[in-house]
Amino acid sequence: MKVVGVGAGPGMLTFEAARVIGEARLIYGSERAIELVSSQIDPRSDVQVIDDYKTLCELPDDTVVLSTGDPMLSGLGYLGGEIVPGISSMQVACARLGISQINVVPITVHGRKMNPGPIAEEIRREKCVFLLVDDSTDLAGLCQHLEKRGLGREVAVLTDLGYPEEKVMMGNTSDPPLSGGLACVMIGDLEQKLVPEE
Question: Domain spanning 90-188: which superfamily?
Fold first, then answer.
């Protein structure tokens, strides 16, 4: 099996990923992942929309499984096999904000219960925290938690990265920007810029 990252949005597919997808004869992916790479798929390929993620590990060895973003950042990399990385939403968010990835700690709360403790600890260590969030994420509650602990910071909410409707909303933990649905959130000193090495 090969797990291929298709990028965070349109035009973010790597040449290696495009090659693997073009050679594949059995492809599984979400509707969004398939749409992102439809121009790379050979018409002779059998393309299936994933309807049960629990059975993916039972697919034949020659299957290519599409993972949005990068499979190793809250993606399908846990399936094993050969992993072809993609351009992650964290890479794109850092580029949009001009923040070095060296100082960023990714934490996913998409589809998971959020634990504010580790997030607060990374903020206390002067790291920027990158969060993948969804409708169930209580971002306002997290920001209140940080404020109460004297960890007020800047907050950016990024949605639809790479799409024409992409938005970058800025605020801080005392007045965070809010959005519904899937989003990327960056919390920290967002004014830091890339510093050239001496």
Answer: Tetrapyrrole methylase, C-terminal domain (3.30.950.10)
pLDDT of residue 196: 52
Q: What are phi and psi of 5, to 5 degrees?
A: -75, 130
CB-count burial class (<10 Å; 0-12, 13-18, 19+) for 67? buried
Burial 131-153 (b: 16+ CB within 10 A, else e): bbbeeebebeebbebbeeeebeb
**Cβ-contact 181, 145 below 8 angstroms:** no
**12: its two tokens:** 């973010």
Question: 175 has which bridge partners?
Answer: 172
Encode pLDDT of 106-138 as tens digits: 998 877 788 899 999 999 999 999 999 988 889
Structure token digits, residue 189:
């000193």
At the second CATH level, the architecture of 2-87 is 3-Layer(aba) Sandwich (3.40)
**What residue spans in the chain does CATH classification 3.30.950.10 cover?**
90-188
> What's the pTM?
0.88
Closest-CA residue to 37 (of 62, 59, 15, 63): 15
Tens-digit pLDDT profile for residues 85-102: 999 999 999 999 999 999
- The pLDDT tens digits of the residues spanning 133-153 come to 988 889 999 999 999 999 999
Contact predicate 15/88, CB 8 Å: no
User: Which tokens belong to 118?
Assistant: 């580790």
